[in-house]
Every structure is written in structure tokens, then in C-alpha cells.
Design brief:
The protein has helices at 20-35, 60-78, 90-102, 115-121, 161-165, 173-185, 211-218, 240-247, 264-269, 276-289, 308-321, 338-342, 349-372; strands spanning 8-16, 39-42, 48-55, 84-89, 108-109, 143-147, 149-150, 169-170, 190-194, 226-229, 251-256, 294-301, 325-330, 378-387, 390-394, 405-409, 420-428, 432-437. With 441 residues, it is an alpha/beta fold. The strands form 4 sheets. A 6-stranded parallel beta sheet has the order 6-9-10-11-12-13. The structure holds iron/sulfur cluster (SF4). Iron/sulfur cluster binds next to helix 5. The site of iron/sulfur cluster has 9 residues, from helix 5.
Length: 441
């Protein structure tokens, strides 16, 4: 399977699995290694002699992908393709002891907060002066994720993240403004604010929810065009964030707020703290305060004890609320979570899949409908890449990787990647918009 090849001494190939928070961790690791004079690559380092796999341990499918990736590189090591193999990230944090026994080819396993120890193992020193500096982005150079905190203090019954990421720790507003300024210096125009739980920001260090304060501060960063919000938590949502969204021209009228479900018995069993009625009221409040907001949410189906009536309640909620963007996860029975310890995984896999498809089917029609209203409109569009015969971009209402894309034919239009251009929408499908660049806008 693997052929012997020349590898470069001290070249590290960092491989990232999982979410955008893991991407930021990999970027921080690569910056430190570069700061120590080491050569680094992200997932393209065929000639690297050292591999670091940054794993995900969230749910079954993600765990399996992480294990398969480790095994793949373990085989490469056994065949002399690479010299050293290290594993870090959530799966390693959660299952270190088991992994050490099951995949001993790995030179060492590290947890999610073990960067200094991983660097030491790689013969590098942790460089404090590099904190807040990220020049080696895993994303296109014009947008970057900005992780505003680590960990989570919530106790959602299905979630293993607090087991892997620990308690909530916010970065200071000053540190985040510095990080954003450094990113802009390196060509970034859009920052996507991420956390395990975005709206908890500041409660630890400022003793108050300070996300809106952070937005006003980031809005002052010159050269930044878009500030996008992901992973908001619905319970006791800080409404001053909506005021900041209205006041700050750079803050996108966009909000990702995973709701997980709507039915009261399920929300209660999930320990989401919020009720069906409060959820309806919150969505109405958000829409009345920011009328043209793009709302993204995530639902979780197949949670223990979920009934057909619960799923119908969810279907009615989605039909009434008409989210602009919606994704659905299927429940994964995770040990050491509240649900893993107290409930049986009583919904068969086939039913989980059917409920997933049912909800996504409703959403696809809604998304198609909503997109038809965009035909003929002109949207400022940030272009990310060229793919085949199209330049591919996003409007203010689209986050990378998860939302709609705007496709403009490269034969009749020209735009540089990383640039904004006004696009008139000519045709709309469920998840893609086709348009032309408006020159005289
Ligand atoms: S808020 Fe999110 S990260 Fe925190 S426990 Fe709940 S689902 Fe997990």
C-alpha cells in the first residue's frame, strides 16, 4: 500500500479532523512549530517525516473517522513512510488509555490542552510571543475562525464535549482584538466567531455575558468586513447581541443557534433548560429585532424516548419558523454523558435515519422557497474559490462549508478570490444560487 519515499527531516504534517475549533488548534500548533524553525504542512505533507493527527471524539461517525486516520498513518509508520506519529485532540483526550493499548504504533497521545507537552515532544519550545498570531491558516487566506473561548459549562444530556474540552474559559476582549488585527494584517476580511457555547462568553472573566461588548470592539478593527456568529445557546440568550448586530456594520445579520429540538419532553430530557414556548418567543424576538437576519440552526433527532408526536412537533415548528439554514444530527449514545449513563438508546438506527430524512426533506423545500425570493436581487458576495467553470462565493447569509453558495460562471465574469463583488441572482436551487457579477452597481 505504501511505497518508501524521501521524507524531509523535521517536517511536520498536521492532519485535522472534526470542527472549526480543532482547525484553530491546528493553526496554533503550526504557528508554534514554524516559530521554532520547523517546516509544517496541513494535510498535504507527503514528504513530512512526522505526522500529528488532531482528532475528533464527538460522536460515533467522527470517532470512527479519527480511528481510521490514525490506523492509516500507523501503517505508514510501520512501512517506514514516516518516522514519528503523534495524536492529539478530543478522541485522544477522551480515550487515551484505550488508544495507547490498541494502537501502540503511535509515539505519544496528547489531550486537548497539552500543546506545550506536544511541542516539547517535537523538540520545540512554546513561544508566548506567538500567542494571538496565526499566519498559517487552514482556510482560504481571506477568512478565519476566531475561537473566543474554550470548554463549556452547560450540561446537555447528549453531549461529550465538556468531557473533552473542560470548563468554559473565555479569552479577553483585548487578546481577541489583537488576534483579529493580526489576521487582518495577513489578508483576512471575515472572522467567524466560534466557541463551544458562544453566548456564555465573558461570564467567567467579566462576571457578565460580554459577547456584545466583544462585537463592538471587533467592529473597530480596520480592514475587517464581516464578523459572523456561530454556536449561540438559546437559553437566556443575551438580547443585547442583537442590538450590537444592528449597531455594528461589520457584524453579519447572521446567527447560528443550535436549538436541538422543540418538543418539551425532549428538551427536558436533553437538559436544554429552555421550553417550546420560550423557543418560539426567542425566534420571534430575534426576527423582530433584526428583521433581515439569516438564522441557522441544528436539530438532533432520535434522542432516547423521542416519540412520533415529538417529531411531528418538530416538523410543525420548522414549517412555521422557516429557518434559512438547518442541519440535522442523529443521536449518538455517548458513554459518560448524562444520557449515556441514564437512558437507553431506544430509538432504532433505521428510525433515526427516517426522522433525519423527514426533517431534512421539509427543510429542503423551505430552503428552495426562500432562495426563489433571492432571484433578481443583488448581494455583496465574498469569493472563496474557483471550481470547474465557476467562481464560488458566499453572501452575508452564508457561512463557509455549511450554507448556500453563490456560483458565477467564470467564462462571462472575472473576480479575484478573496474579493467582494456584487452579484445579481439569476437562478436559485435548494442550496445553490447562480448569478452574474454586476459591474455598474
Ligand atoms: S452547549 Fe453545546 S458544547 Fe455545551 S454541553 Fe451543550 S451541546 Fe455540548
Amino acid at each position: 500500500m505504501h511505497t518508501k519515499k524521501d521524507t524531509k527531516p523535521n517536517k511536520v504534517n498536521v492532519v485535522t479532523l472534526g470542527c472549526s475549533k480543532n482547525l484553530v488548534d491546528s493553526e496554533v500548533l503550526m504557528q508554534q512549530l514554524k516559530g521554532n524553525g520547523m517546516e509544517v504542512a496541513h494535510e498535504k505533507g507527503e514528504d513530512a517525516n512526522i505526522v500529528v493527527v488532531n482528532t475528533c471524539g464527538f460522536i460515533d461517525v467522527a470517532k470512527q473517522e479519527s480511528i481510521d486516520t490514525i490506523l492509516n498513518f500507523a501503517a505508514a509508520k510501520t512501512e517506514g513512510e514516516i518516522e514519528k506519529l503523534y495524536v492529539t485532540g478530543c478522541l485522544s483526550q477522551r480515550y487515551k488509555d484505550d488508544l495507547e493499548k490498541e494502537i501502540p504504533e503511535v509515539d505519544a497521545y496528547f489531550g486537548t490542552l497539552d500543546l506545550p507537552f506536544l511541542l516539547e515532544e517535537l523538540g520545540a519550545d512554546y513561544q508566548h510571543e506567538l500567542i494571538g498570531e496565526r499566519t498559517l491558516l487552514t482556510t482560504p487566506q481571506h477568512y478565519a475562525y476566531l475561537k473566543i473561548s474554550e470548554g463549556c459549562n452547560r450540561t446537555c444530556a447528549f453531549c461529550a464535549i465538556p468531557l473533552m474540552r473542560g470548563k468554559h474559559v473565555s479569552k479577553s476582549i483585548e487578546q481577541l482584538v489583537l488576534e483579529a488585527k493580526n489576521l487582518v494584517k495577513n489578508g483576512v476580511k471575515e472572522v467567524i466567531l466560534i466557541a463551544q457555547e458562544l453566548t456564555y462568553y465573558g461570564l467567567d472573566i467579566y462576571k457578565e455575558k460580554a459577547l456584545s461588548k466583544l462585537l463592538y470592539a471587533l467592529n473597530e478593527v480596520e480592514g475587517l468586513s464581516w464578523i459572523r456568529l456561530h454556536y449561540a445557546y438559546p437559553y437566556q440568550f443575551p438580547l443585547d447581541v442583537l442590538q450590537a448586530m444592528n449597531d455594528c456594520e461589520k457584524v453579519c445579520n447572521y446567527l447560528d443557534i443550535p436549538l436541538q429540538h422543540i418538543s418539551d419532553p425532549v428538551l427536558k430530557n436533553m437538559r436544554r433548560l429552555i421550553t417550546e414556548q420560550q423557543t418560539y418567543e426567542l425566534v420571534d424576538q430575534i426576527r423582530s429585532q433584526v428583521p433581515d437576519i439569516t438564522l441557522r440552526t441544528t436539530m438532533l433527532v432520535g434522542f432516547p424516548k423521542e416519540t412520533d408526536a415529538d417529531i411531528e412537533a418538530l416538523a410543525r415548528f420548522i414549517e412555521k419558523t422557516r429557518f434559512d439554514r438547518l442541519g440535522v444530527f442523529q443521536y449518538s449514545h455517548e458513554e459518560n454523558t448524562f444520557a449515556g449513563q441514564n437512558y437507553a438508546d431506544d430509538i432504532p438506527a433505521l428510525i433515526k435515519q427516517q426522522r433525519h430524512d423527514y426533517i431534512m426533506g421539509i427543510q429542503e423545500e423551505i430552503s428552495f422557497d426562500i432562495n426563489q425570493q433571492k432571484v433578481g436581487q443583488v448581494y455583496p458576495t465574498l469569493f472563496d474559490r474557483k471550481e470547474g467553470e465557476f467562481f464560488v462565493g458566499r453572501t452575508e447569509g452564508d457561512s463557509p462549508e455549511v450554507d448556500n453558495e453563490v456560483l458565477v460562471n467564470a467564462k462571462d465574469n472575472y473576480v479575484r478570490m478573496g474579493d467582494f463583488a456584487p452579484v445579481r441572482i439569476l437562478k436559485a436551487e435548494s442550496y445553490d444560487l447562480y448569478g452574474e457579477i454586476v459591474l455598474d452597481n
